[in-house]
Design a protein that fits this description.
Elements: H1 9-20, E1 30-35, H2 52-57, H3 59-71, E2 73-77, E3 82-83, H4 92-95, E4 99-102, E5 107-110, H5 129-144, E6 151-154, H6 160-168, H7 170-179, H8 181-206, E7 213-216, E8 221-224, E9 227-231, H9 240-257, E10 260-266, H10 274-277, E11 285-289, H11 303-311, E12 315-319, H12 325-339, E13 344-347, H13 353-366
Parallel strand pairs: 1-13, 3-6, 6-7, 9-10, 10-11, 11-12, 12-13
Antiparallel strand pairs: 1-2, 4-5, 7-8
Helix pairs in contact: 5-8, 6-7, 6-8, 7-8, 8-9
Length: 369
């Protein structure tokens, strides 16, 4: 039995394509869902996980629970059906030697190296236990979703400096900055190659063969060709000079290899790196995370950041999901009136179908781009 969760795929792809290119698309892309009064179809009952590791490793339960969730959601505007099988944010660390530490709300990667290898090259064995196991999970999910329009998401591999920090520890990495900068750069280069290898391997299960589109597990994004979120959370602890020396070129290389890319900017400490990031011509968009305890992303305090990104011709991913539906719509409206609608992608809170319909009607009428 074929199951279709979404009706307006063509329109959604057109809006995403325009957003990635920072072009007009009628109105900004909007990700919004509403809970169904009656499930679309529910062949799988939800299954409780036995422990925290089970949440990440029990493929059958992960598939059943995400399928059940999709069956109870109406996907409105640019919301699309996806399934994610992450082994934490940064699973590239597992494939290159780290071991996982499963916790109640996250997965940590345990350092395994005492400093960097003499040549700076980080080993990656395609027979690595975690890599093979993760690919097997995707193979099973591909089979389970083959008669649906669900997109499997490329996992959150993460890259270069953040992976090095996982493998040797942040303090040790900072020491390497000063003692062995060339080794750090060589390690980042080798991790970029491993990122490409892993990305393409997972993308074999994730890419839509008919359209050439793939989805990425973080931030509700999909796009033509290789699409991914990239990051450097370590940037919060390094200077703009160090960011330019160690992070900028590996990020540029990634963006040149990817077809569409979104940089995850994590917290106010990272804002100082915006000028450098804006120099990456191939980078399409910025996703802004305000950080714990800071005002949410719809507040005026962040307008200067948005102006920097807009002035550079990049698109913006803005989460308004922490607001109530009416305030989220108000904040989006304020942003559109201040900066224009082109280039925004809004993540909205869950709404009733009536609230979501009113939002889209307003967007179609007043947020034209």
């Amino acid at each position: 039995m074929s199951i279709q969760f979404k009706e307006n795929w063509q329109e959604t792809r057109e809006r995403f394509s325009a957003w990635w290119a920072n072009e007009s698309s009628g109105r900004p892309p909007i990700y919004v869902t509403a809970r169904r009064e009656k499930p679309l179809i529910n062949p799988y009952p939800p299954e409780p996980y036995s422990d925290v590791a089970d949440r990440y490793l029990n493929t059958d339960k992960i598939i059943a629970n995400q399928f059940e969730h999709l069956c109870n959601q109406e996907l409105i505007a640019e919301a699309f059906p996806f399934m994610t099988l992450d082994l934490g944010a940064g699973s590239l660390a597992l494939y290159t030697g780290s071991e996982p530490s499963f916790n109640a709300d996250t997965l940590w990667f345990l350092p395994v190296m005492k400093g960097l290898p003499p040549d700076g090259k980080i080993p990656f064995d395609v027979k690595n236990e975690w890599y093979v196991r993760h690919l097997e999970m995707f193979k099973a999910a591909k089979e389970a979703t083959k008669d649906t329009d669900i997109m499997l998401c490329v996992p959150d591999l993460v890259e270069h400096l953040d992976i090095l920090s996982s493998l040797i520890g942040a303090t040790e990495l900072f020491e390497e900055f000063f003692e062995n900068p060339d080794l750090v750069k060589a390690a980042c280069s080798s991790l970029n190659e491993h990122f490409k290898t892993a990305f393409d391997a997972f993308n074999e299960y994730c890419i839509d063969k008919d359209t050439g589109w793939n989805a990425f597990t973080a931030f509700y994004i999909c796009g033509p060709g290789r699409t991914a979120k990239i990051q450097c959370d370590l940037a919060a602890m390094i200077s703009p000079k160090q960011f330019r020396e160690f992070a900028l070129e590996p990020l540029r290389e990634q963006c040149q290899w990817l077809d569409t890319s979104l940089f995850h900017l994590d917290g106010p400490e990272c804002i100082c790196h915006i000028p450098a990031l804006m120099e990456i011509n191939e980078l399409n968009a910025i996703q802004w995370t305000t950080g714990h305890g800071n005002p949410p992303s719809g507040e005026e305090v962040w307008y200067d950041l948005y102006k920097q990104v807009k002035d550079a011709g990049k698109s913006l991913w803005i989460a308004l999901a922490d607001y109530s539906p009416d305030i989220a719509i108000q904040k989006a409206d304020e942003l559109v009136r201040k900066f224009g609608a082109k280039g925004f992608y809004f993540l909205m809170p869950d709404m009733t179908r009536k609230e979501a319909d009113a939002l889209i009607l307003k967007a179609d009428r007043e947020w034209k781009c």
